[in-house]
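**User:** Here is a favour to ask of a fellow structure person. Please take any protein you like and set down a full record of it. No explanation is needed for now; the record alone will do.

**Assistant:**
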Amino acid sequence: MTRRTGLIDAAVHRLRSRISSGEWPVGSRIPAEPALTELLGVGRNTVREAVQSLVHAGLLERRQGSGTYVLSASELAVTFGREIADARQRDVVEVRRSLEVEAARLAARRRTDKDIALLRRLRDERAAAYHEGDLDRMVSTDLDLHRTIAITARNPVLLSLYENLLDAITENIRFNFTAPEHGDDSHDGLVDAIANGDAASAAREVTTYLSELLGDHAE
């Protein structure tokens, strides 16, 4: 029994690794059971139990007659999603402000020339989407820019927290873009502050626009 449990745990670990690494991206169908049996070198019962474990964890979903698909790359994201499913948009903005202010400050200190070029390109793509009035692109390009700033901060704990809140942040960005009071914020000041290595200004830019969404005065 102990050996069988060990085989299942090892199979779960190997399946989870392929999901978390992006080898099996969210939305993709994983190999069928015979292929998994060959891939993992274990019996079908072990494969079934390993897959079922990840189904229970929220990483996989079985679809009748279609196969098994990747729902999420992280159990933490699933847990966060359940916990904040009914969160108010104001609550999400407050959490974004706490994470994104520090991300901007650290990004200004740790950015490279390659980071600066990427941030400027993403800023321009965001501006183009806004000019075209394409809501889906506005949301995706805005998210890409803020996620890249979090990556540029080079703090793996901050990045993990941010990425595990991406669903809530995406929904919040869409909500903010459709709010009547949303203005045309180009994020030029934010990107320039990071490019110039001005940590204080970068933090202030984020504080200002998110505080305005909250109706607060930036400190």
In short: The mean pLDDT is 88.
